[in-house]
Design goal:
The protein is mainly beta and 834 residues long. It contains 6 helices and 70 strands.
Length: 834
Amino acid sequence: MQPKKLVATGLATAMLLVASVLGAVQLGQYPSFLGEATATGFTPKAYIVVGKGAAPQDVVGAIDLGADLQQLSYVTKTAAGAGPAQVTGGVSLDTADTKLYLGDNINKAKSTLTANDLPTLLASGSIEDSQGTKYDYSQYLTIGGKQITYAQEYVGGGLKDPVYKIVLGTSTPPSGYVLDAWVSFTKPFNASNAVGKELVLFGKSFTISAETDNTKLVLFGTTGKETIQAGETKTITVGGNTYTVTVNGIIDASNAVITVNGVQKEVHEGNTYDFAGTSVYVSDVFYYKVPVETGSVVVSIGADRYVLQQGYAIKKGTSGNEEEIKGTLVQTLSPQSLSKLEIYFDGYSEATGYIKAGSVFEAPVFGFKVAYNGPASTNSETITISPGGSTYYQVSFTDKFGKSGTVTWAYYSTAEKLADSNGDEIAVVEGAPLRVASGGYHYTIINQGGFPHLLKVTSLEVTNSPAYCKAEFQDVLSGTTYKFEKSVTSGELIIDGQTYTITCSDGTPDTVAITWTSGSKVVYPTLETKYGAKIAFVTPLTGQGLPLTLVLPTGTLNAVASQSGNETTVGGVTYVYNSSSSAVTDIKIKGYDKPAIIIIQEAEKGQQYGKVAIIPVSYDSTDTRLELNGGTAPSTLFGASQVATSADKVFHFVSVWGTKVVFDISGAGTATITYPDTQVYHLVAVGNNPQFTTTTAGVTYNEAAPLLQSIAKLDTDIMDYQGNIVDTGAVNNYHLVLVGGPCVNVLAWKLVQDGKLDANYTCHGSAWTPGTAYVIAIDNAFATGKIALLVAGTSAADTKLATDVLSQGKIPATYTGSSAKITGTITSPTITPV
């Protein structure tokens, strides 16, 4: 392997950027300066260039940098935010104060609907009998106790992916129903005395048939209703079909002869007849003697005949050929003394047995509907727990300050522990001794006053005589550095307006502790995500000597002295601890003897504390890897039970808050958590045609977009070994990320030849020392307005250090230089301007 070298003499002046239309490049803004904004998003405009004879480390590093370019590519879209949903054609079943959540019955907020809710569908009405007596009535809908669930869909006999649905058909009415439609008369009404009269039920008109008696109420629909004079022929169109009807003659005040589409029959009023497959209801026959003998017939073409009888389903069809309408049940019916008519509706007889989100249940005969729109839209975030390699686990999220990143939290060497991928540990007790030297605690979480940060000690210098302490802490997600330097070994450090006590110890190695409470200690401190979920890293703690008052992620534990194996539940989580007469010596979460990540959602409405998901890691010696939850799916997360999917190794969990977890055990185990900004309520409405519309809050978001072309090239694809450009399109239209120095990358060599790098800095220069690398942004490198970003080291390993520092975001966003010298290791790099 040929070493790469750049001569360092005069480097600071040689690296000054030529002025460009873009302005000076700031490395802290990497990789954004390698892309271009468009009207609809952002796209990378750069090639990763590797020398044709480069070392494997260069290629691996280039792959990592390519991933950064992929992250640049997005399309800007606008979606409806969390605006309130509006209902047309019906009424919503929630209220401003009482929303419907997963697991609720749909009648939780509203159990009875009246004409105030549905003025047309439930309008009051009246009917007169043959003696002219008027009977007034009111109409109502009672909502059944059907539950909103998330479960597997049943389709064609096979189990599919889960859906949100309202379960129907758990029992037959009246024990179970989705709707109870009922009519209340102001005084008892004899329907047999109102033959031929029109009765409007739930927005649909019917005519009372002469077949009505003391056990059954027979109704005909009024579809295609027409009055036809004796000797007259009319053409009637119903449902797209045309019927020719002739009244051939009037026999008397009840009987006549009519012809429908060529079929002639004698008919009697109040009855229905089949004319070659067409149902015709004859509601009235009128016979006049003066001034001439004549008459008329009132018919309804295509009229459906319905039989309502106490304790039975509604029947439909001509006399003697009726069929039951499944999912209906008539109750409280006494046709000749009618005070109340009640009809239950449900899907207990249907194959599906549920109302799927985005669909409706339509009541037979009357056609009114229950519409279930599913969860209301709201903004959400994604938290991903996944393996970073066979020996460590990571969690990716955006914190409450808007900083996104990935934290390595679990590691296995000879045992599982809370640590990064190098084994440097995370302290989960306030005041733990932190150090820079390898081994021991390098990280801690502070969270006073609702300002949580995961900090890493990056620099520490302590002396007792004279007293002096210099400590630097870096926020792992934001890259922000916090510095403490005083001529004392203990003092105050202000972060986010919060006061922390810094205590330094001169030892082998030097250590520094951060504390912020008095009389208690924070154990398993939490980070916080963008939308309010809490994240903590937990592991059994032994021999700690903690105070009896502990601030835990789910609440405060006031421990009892001199206990052995005491179990105490705090905020829904059970902790087990041992204590002496004055201190807690050991503590863990019950049932968890391995490191685990705990995510705490906000408290659901009506609850005192938020539900939690606790997911441990353990090492599988057979698969030689660290696995999430032992390589199996948990039974519950966030209080939600496991739901199987069409994939046998993927399981879903959906909590009442609306948090959704996709747990995939096809490998070592990955949990993808979708966490909503607010508790998600569900939209259910009833009416003739209920539909939901959501007001748009104008929420703009960036959606990842695939790269549509290659982003990698060999140096000789762009320039030959004589320095001649062979791909003008690449140099004129793209920024270039050059991996490797002048010895292995002809484009880097060309920069030296052109004076963009000082001419003394040839690949054989001796100024560079082992363990040194540079990241240098050169504006207008090969074309005006185009950047060359040189990533090069003394050796291939040094170049890999530089690519790792870039790809892992180790250069802070606040870094303002256009060039940087990099030494150290990836876990503890030193980045200095040159």
